[in-house]
Amino acid sequence: MNTDTRQAEFGSGVPEPRPLGVDWIHGSPSAKHNTDPDIQVHVHDEHTVILRQNMAIDYEAPFLYLLFGDDRAVLIDTGATASAELFPLRRVVDELVERRLVAYPRAHYPLLVLHSHAHGDHVAGDGQFADRPDTVVVPAGLDEAWPYFGFAEDPDRVARVDLGGRVLECLATPGHHPAAVTYYDPHTGFLLTGDTVYPGRLYVSDWPAFRRTVDRLIDFAGTRPVTHVLGCHIEMTTEPGVDYPIRTVYQPDEPPLEMSVAQLRDIRRAIDEVGERTGRHAFPDFVLCRDA
Length: 292
Known about the structure:
By secondary structure, this protein is α/β, with parallel strands linked by helices. Helix content is 19%, strand content 23%. It has five helices and 14 strands. It has a six-stranded mixed sheet with strand order 1-2-3-4-5-6, covered by helices on one side. Strands 7-8-9-10-12 form a five-stranded mixed sheet, with no helix packed on it. Strand 8 (167-172) and strand 9 (181-185) form a beta hairpin. The chain starts with 38 loop residues before the first strand and ends with a strand.
């Protein structure tokens, strides 16, 4: 392999807030006859890839994020299916890394696997990377992930993951899950919120923690150029306040994946409106589902 070390131009300016402009695969009326790829690959730019799992493989159809730096890449989440035959995540990631190395040759280019949280539809593919060379998989559970970021000692810190020329900022954001982490990428301006915020059913297991998390995200976004708030699912329809049924495998009228800081503020107002009431509470762009 050519060992030249061409450096990427990540830039130091304000990222451009442009729509993703993607027609996401969204299932089909008959999963048996689905012809979509197992994994949709959207190259946002030469350093940033968004992946979506096929609904015919798993109805959750999570989004995953692959970000390239000069020194290493990070994959955030590994999807809802363990089988490499049904869900060839490692093969797709390896192909994308090899393509990257053609443009930016490196003799050594590690992969870091991190997670938004520890629910099964975000960690199922971890095993595909267990024997991959030059790869570190940080488990998603509270006892593993939070010490990695230093959140066990200081849950309010802003941790940093340096990819080489591209440094992600990481926040502990519990409420949906105790070990949830949000990632901010200054290159794209993406705020990657996992299942904490997305156009769908926001399941809240710890209401006070969720409220604090949304406050923190709003405060954080006030000091960073956030172009898009990007979660890991789409569950809403284009009709305000109406979501698709759980376990649906066909969502022909999805809203965009990308949300805004203004919608974060909408969620905060919705939290106040819901108050101490448990249950399901529908709002135009999301549904708050409070367990307790």
